[in-house]
Structure formats: C-alpha cells, structure tokens
Design goal:
alpha+beta, 4-stranded antiparallel sheet
Length: 180
C-alpha cells in the first residue's frame, strides 16, 4: 500500500499537542507529587513571599506596604506566566516556514519488513519493531516511534474508509506485542 499526502500546519500543531500530552501522561506516572509544576511553582511563590512576611512581622514595613508589595509580586508572577504563554503561541504559529520539508509532499509505503517514508529531502525506512503504537486523533493517524515522535498520516491520504481500515489493521497486525 502506498500513500501520498501533504501535512498542514494545523496537522503538525495537533501532533505537537498530542506528543506533549503523551509525555505529560508518562511524567505523571513516574514522578512524585513534589515535582509537579503546580507544586514547584506554589513553593517558589511562597518562598518569595517569605521576605515580605519577615519585613511585616519585624515591623519594618506597614501592613499597607506589605499588601502593596505582595500585590506587585503576584502581578509580576502573573505577567511572566502570560508572557511565556503568548511567546509559546507565537512560536507555534510561526515555527514552520512554507518551504519546510515537514509540510512538503510525503510518500508512505508499507512494505513487508516495515514502512518507507520519503519527502523532497530524505527517504527513511522504519522496521516494524520501531513502532510502539498506532493511534488516531480526529482525522490524523499517528504511527508512534516513541512518546513524542511519530509518522503522521492525515485521513485525507486515504481514498475511502475501507482503505484506512486496511491500513490500520495492517499496521496493528505488524506491531510487536507490548510486554504486560
């Protein structure tokens, strides 16, 4: 079976979100409560408030000064979070140029010993053992190589649903069983 398709920026952005979600899910399984971002952030914010509390209780500043300083500290923390979020969105929107190989025409071919993928700049061959999972999110099929790397196949690459089902069943049939 051979497929020819072109990915869009939207396809690639959705893949990045899915990859991040898979990595977060794994991180949640292998880390303790003390290394969660919300716990670390709360701890650092409380640690930053400690000098203000000391100044208040040592009566070096008035209660009004304490609340003004605490408000300014929290406002600064909120602005940093907002700036980071906006920068991330800007980065994701402008990450791939129009001439990116990731957005060029891709040919994917299922062969007896694996998958051959080629675009305008490279040809890659993946053995069936390289794939850990196959999943579908919306109209995007993902042949996962690891937690955050996959071959992307949009649903529009298939002529009909029967061809898509055949593709999925072929790939799933070739995947090595995961140990329990």
């Amino acid at each position: 079976m051979e497929l020819t398709y072109r990915l869009t920026r939207k396809d690639h952005q959705r893949f990045v979100q899915l990859g991040v979600a898979r990595v977060k899910q794994h991180a949640n399984q292998v880390t303790g409560w003390h290394s969660k971002p919300a716990v670390v952030t709360s701890g650092v914010v409380l640690l930053g408030m400690l000098p203000l509390a000391y100044l208040l209780f040592a009566e070096f500043i008035s209660p009004l000064g304490y609340f003004v300083a605490a408000f300014a500290y929290m406002w600064g923390a909120l602005c940093v979070c907002l700036c980071a979020r906006l920068t991330q969105r800007l980065f994701m929107r402008n990450w791939l140029p129009d001439s990116s190989p990731l957005l060029s025409e891709t040919r994917l071919k299922l062969v007896s010993d694996g998958v051959e993928a080629s675009d305008q700049t490279r040809t890659s061959k993946y053995a069936w053992q390289a794939f850990s999972d196959v999943s579908q999110s919306g109209d995007l099929m993902l042949l996962w190589l690891d937690r955050a790397q996959a071959l992307l196949v949009p649903e529009r690459a298939f002529a009909n649903t029967e061809m898509r089902e055949t593709f999925i069943n072929t790939v799933r049939g070739r995947l090595s069983p995961t140990p329990a």
